[in-house]
Design a protein that fits this description.
Number of strands: 11
Low-confidence stretches: none
Strand order of the largest sheet: 3-4-5-2-1-8-9
Distance between the termini: 75 Å
Mean pLDDT: 92
Radius of gyration: 26 Å
Shape: elongated
Strand content: 5-15%
Helix content: 40-55%
Order of helices and strands: EHEHEEEEEHEEHEHEHHHHHHHHHHHHHH
Number of domains: 3
Length: about 425
């Protein structure tokens, strides 16, 4: 039995990046030998075990044979006769196919040139088996977002393009798409993920609502970059720069989907794109089974980002109505995330990345002022006067408008 550290732990150590998780592969062992040494079996599709002390995962060396479409279409062989080189051959990228001996970590096994590609900053597939699993396209795109200064090897890009043309990407399951998409959105350069997916053609299959944004013009006085797809990439860059959480980044990705369906005869204007964005977002979130928290925030941003951008010109009554549409009185903590997504949108424009976004502070101040209204007391007083239902709600609304109006002189000063 020989044990090797493999995958991202070896890669990150060579890059000087802190190692978060360690994975191990065991060569020359049987499941019975592993359990006899105290390892706990946990693998469903192939033999994986938890170390009795560290609880890290140890997998028996294995090979895979394609037996169907999609990432589930594989037959796995794991036995004591599988070599380390055979196990590494089934991995996706050369930089992830380096092994380090457990007893002497400086001794590396690198049969596919992973160290060479790390030095050259290249993302390259290990073998043609890469083309059998469409999830690997998503993984490579995610690694491009993490290692943004790495390039994709031309032969690997060609292989991915062929996979798209052959329909392999059509068989991706929603859970895996969202898993990789959400992880890619949280990388330091999430825009790179979508650039790679677009270049290989996978974006139009996985996210056609996003893919169609490229080539759609916007008014240059508001969007110096003009192209809606280019704007989206700048927005994602800003979301990463401002360290936005996942729901905000998903909202950034989907806020302008409606611009991809704007009638050609009214371009570069996008009248009513907010409503169309929300409708497209609904079908996209349902298709990918996006978590409710992410979809709910993105829905508000899609519908209201235009109004939020223009909120500096709104009177107090209109500001209160905007806060109501954002559900800010029931969920005040979520308003900050909505405003952060809108700030990313406003600053994700060519040459405007360093501009201030005063709408954020003004709307937070407006909400704070409106929250000082004693709604219970107003409701009791209104009820004593015979008011019911919407009449009580209107009394509360008037009080909130008055509170926001009282705030205005101080804000202006």
């Amino acid at each position: 039995m020989k044990i090797y550290m493999v995958g991202g732990a070896v890669r990150d150590r060579l890059l000087g990046i802190p190692v978060q998780d360690r994975d191990w592969v065991v060569v020359g062992a049987t499941p019975e030998q592993m359990t006899a040494q105290g390892f706990t079996p946990v693998g469903k599709d192939f033999p994986v075990f938890l170390h009795p002390g560290t609880r890290e995962e140890y997998a028996l060396a294995r090979t895979e044979r394609k037996s169907g479409r999609g990432y589930r279409g594989f037959t796995v062989l794991a036995d004591a006769g599988v070599t380390l080189e055979e196990d590494l051959a089934r991995r996706d990228l050369t930089i992830n196919a380096i092994a380090a001996c457990e007893d002497s970590p400086e001794d590396l096994v690198d049969p596919y040139g992973g160290q060479r590609d790390l030095a050259a900053k290249v993302l390259r597939h290990v073998t043609e088996a890469f083309g059998e699993d469409p999830v690997r396209i998503l993984r490579l795109a995610r690694f491009a977002a993490r290692f943004h200064d790495f390039t994709v090897a031309p032969e690997t890009m060609g292989l991915m393009q062929g996979m798209v043309q052959d329909g392999e990407v059509d068989h991706l399951v929603p859970e895996r798409v969202w898993q990789e998409l959400s992880r890619g959105l949280m990388e330091q350069h999430p825009e790179r993920m979508f650039e790679v997916l677009r270049e290989c053609g996978a974006l139009r299959v996985i996210l056609p609502e996003v893919d169609r944004l490229w080539g759609v013009p916007q008014r240059a006085e508001y969007h110096p970059e003009v192209d809606t797809g280019v704007h989206l990439m700048l927005v994602l860059q800003m979301a990463a720069r401002l360290e936005a959480p996942l729901p905000v980044r998903y909202a950034c990705l989907t806020h302008d989907l409606g611009k991809g369906t704007t009638p050609a005869d009214i371009l570069p204007r996008h009248i009513g794109h907010e409503k169309r964005s929300a409708e497209l977002l609904g079908s996209l979130s349902e298709r990918l089974r996006v978590p409710t928290e992410c979809h709910a925030l993105a829905d508000v941003v899609a519908r209201e980002h235009g109004g939020i951008h223009r909120s500096g010109d709104l009177n107090p009554a209109a500001v209160v109505r905007l806060l109501e549409r954002c559900d800010a009185f029931r969920k005040p903590e979520r308003l900050r995330d909505i405003l952060l997504a809108c700030e990313c949108d406003a600053r994700g424009r060519q040459g405007l990345q360093e501009t201030e976004y005063p709408q954020r502070d003004r709307l937070i101040q407006a909400l704070t002022a409106a929250q000082t209204v004693a709604t219970d007391e107003i409701a009791r007083t209104a009820q004593a006067r015979g008011a019911v239902g919407e009449q009580i709600g209107e009394a509360i609304r008037r009080a909130r408008v008055a509170a926001v109006a009282a705030m205005e002189p101080a804000s202006a000063g």
